[in-house]
């Protein structure tokens, strides 16, 4: 009988999802081919090449931070193994449906010996830490560059006054307390997080957001030369655009939304046509780097790594996985 030569249904599903991720990434790049070509034609190649190298370093390092996120919940996964699982499954956010990346990450983590309950809980923790990091660098960069003051001038008189800001902060705090009081599961998640590894992950994310903004600054230099905005303007605009794309639920990768957001936040310090060209070129570099790392992760040597010693995807202690979050990561 040759039935044992057939791939099980789960293996076919995994291969189909991987193929779908490659196809979706390639399709996203293809839809941007004309504006990308126009932006690339007017760009300086040396800073663009350095930006591409920075992105290639950024992606696996950012992916590896999932290891301390897991550690904050009492689960262990080596950084290299965590980075590979993260990069392979994160590419599935481009596949329509939005849930594939989260569900497959829990499944791959379980195969690596991480209990599904810990893996699923790590997703909202990771989301919270990344949103805090991108939000912090957005405020810091926009404030240092003067863009925050420029946007404050557009608000109605008195809207940016200290009493108004304090009132807004108090309202946000009250809403957060109300949310915690109505969400016992959220309180359990927060209570179960170990502070030291969680703070280490947050610090790493803050540094990586700044590093990511450095690459964006190089793209701005490639487009505008000496007229490009400063580093902190690039860091703040890039982080703010990431947040805008993150909250654009239902749009894979926030494509189009982040580019518009970057052009908007750069408007006080850069011409809109140049900012739009840089944002489109920036997206192309990110998709290209993601495709390259996805291909590297699926090389034969990278796909045969055994689970950590003493763990088993079948025998690892586990509990029924918690409900997965419905938001998508960048």
Describe what you observe in this structure.
By secondary structure, the chain is mainly alpha-helical. It has one domain (24-302). It contains 14 helices and no strands. It has helices spanning 9-31, 33-41, 45-64, 66-71, 79-90, 100-111, 116-145, 147-152, 162-182, 184-191, 195-224, 231-246, 257-266, 272-297. The longest helix has 30 residues, at 116-145. The chain is globular, with a radius of gyration of 21 Å. The termini are far apart.
Q: What's this entry about, in short?
A:
With 330 residues, the protein is mainly alpha-helical. The protein is 69% helix and 0% strand. The termini are far apart.
- Rg (CA only): 21 Å
Distance between the termini: 46 Å
Count the beta strands: 0
Helix content: 55-70%
> Approximately what portion of the residues adopt beta-strand conformation?
under 5%
Tally of discrete structural domains: 1
Sequence stretches where pLDDT stays below 50 over 5 or more residues:
1-9, 308-330
Number of helices: 14
H/E element sequence: HHHHHHHHHHHHHH
Structural class designation = mainly alpha
Largest sheet composition? none
Shape: globular
